Every structure is written in C-alpha cells, then in structure tokens.
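Cross-posting from the modeling subforum.

Setting up a comparison between two proteins and wanted a second pair of eyes on the formatting. Protein 1 (sequence, then structure tokens):
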Amino acid sequence: MVPDDPGEGFRVTDRRRQDSEVEARPVAAEARPAPAAPPPPRPAQPQAPERSLAGLFMMLASSAVVSMGEVADPVTGQRHDDLDQAAEIIDLLVLLREKTEGHRSAEESQVLDELVYDLQVRFVNARKRAG
C-alpha cells in the first residue's frame, strides 16, 4: 500500500551529534599528544644495475664463454664444453645484431661487433681443441 500523503510512511532521523552540540573543552597541555617524530631514515637500498642493451650482449657473451669451457661455470665451479650451446648463443647475438640494426647507439654497436668477432674466433679454437 502506497501512502497518499508524502509526509506519511518512511521517515529517516539523523541521530548523530552536530558540531554545534559538541562542547568546546580546553585541552590541558599535558593531555595534548606530542608532535610525531619524523620516521628514522631508511637504510640505503642497493640500486639494481642499470639495464642496457650492451649489458644484455655481455651477459650472453659470458654464457657463451662458459659453454666453450674457457672459464668455470660460476654455479658449479666446473668447466664443461657444450659447443652446441655456445654456437646457439653466438647465433643469437648475430640475430640481435641484425634485428636491432639502426636502433643501437654507436657504443652498443661497437660492443656487439667486438663480442661477436671475439666469440667466433674463440669458437673456432674450441672446435679445433675438441677435434
């Protein structure tokens, strides 16, 4: 049933206190909270090394050198020859050189060219050693 008179029916009463109803009481100085001290300085967190294309090239090249057995694997401390993996990494660097042509800085291009050349020479020598 809908009431005919809009004054009839549902009614909402706000029972919260209004600011005018709150008594203004002075707060004693000792009751006031002390100002918050500034938080202690955070310990300096080591910043992540800056990521760069040259860094990616160097990371891949170091993996290739490990795969050729020229340096010990940093995880195991053992030397091992996996020339197939080394060849794949060198091919990946050559592919990156082709695909990033025109988008590298002069420094990045120089690093990549020198790495590819050096790795190719090392690979030929490693293949000769393996027989």
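Protein 2 (same layout):
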Amino acid sequence: MCDDFNSMMFDFDMYDLGKIRYFLGVELIQNSNGIFLCQRNCACEILARFGMDKSNSMQNPLFPGQS
C-alpha cells in the first residue's frame, strides 16, 4: 500500500505538509502515546452560537442524587 502512495507522487503534484492537525473539523493530536481526537473547537463554536461561550464551567453538570 505504501508503494502505491509513493508512486502517486510521480503522477500528481503532492506536498508533505507535516502531521495532520485537523480533519473534517475534528482536531487530531498525535504524540508518543497515540493519536487522539478532540472536538474542543466544535464545542466552542456551539457555545458561541448560543451565547454561552462566557458561561462558567462545571466539573460535573449533574448534582449528586439527581438523575
């Protein structure tokens, strides 16, 4: 499979842009522990859209004893 990709470099103009950081609006974090997906930007955009971006955050949104 890797050979197929390398052969495409001769047929098409391709550039190495380094490690991927975003894909379809999802942030990808790559380090020695693995690859992690993060939707922090999406959550921030939703909060801003509804005027809640300046709201206080909570560790646990549910109070103990409530369902």
